[in-house]
Model the fold of this input.
Amino acid sequence: NAGVMQNPRHLVRRRGQEARLRCSPMKGHSHVYWYRQLPEEGLKFMVYLQKENIIDESGMPKERFSAEFPKEGPSILRIQQVVRGDSAAYFCASSPSRQLLGTGPSGEQYFGPGTRLTVT
Amino acid sequence: SQQGEEDPQALSIQEGENATMNCSYKTSINNLQWYRQNSGRGLVHLILIRSNEREKHSGRLRVTLDTSKKSSSLLITASRAADTASYFCATENDYKLSFGAGTTVTVRA
Done:
């Protein structure tokens, strides 16, 4: 059973270009989460998606960032007109179901290897 | 602001010794999780402890949770060189994970 897949693993973009990051969740998982990790910091929540729905995008910058999880295909995190401050590692995670107040199945999220974005 | 904060920021120990790191958080949680991240890699889930649990074991790992003090600790016993990594605590409230900045552990051979 393949884990969470992310591609590309490394992405270099010049300022002003667009970056598209892809995430394929684990088989059977319908919940996808995107996190960003700046150097020497922990991961910061960006967005939570289910198939064809954005559930919570409270961690996404208001401009230039968007995310989708279509009915078919991987989840996409898109960053338009990238700036140097967007350089970071972007991690995707998936889970089989939404955790409900500590009940139900394990609350763990399964993380992909990340995409390291460098903006030059 | 970060929900979880780990202490210490860095830890260097000899192989075979125990490593202890702590995590403090601010708001109520459903559960608290510990993850490991090897340099340049993704996160690996280590252990989850629910808000109504006080202690949990998994192999050489022991996690405690004190909800009255809003703190948790991770103990790695009989450390190995392969335990060299950054360790993050993450609190889960609803579905969001909030991570601390991590503790970098170096195990010397």
Observations:
- Chain B touches chain A through 28 residues (CB under 8 Å).
- The CA atoms of residues 88 and 102 of chain B lie 4 Å apart.
- The first strand of chain B starts at residue 5 and ends at 7.
- The mean pLDDT of chain B is 91.
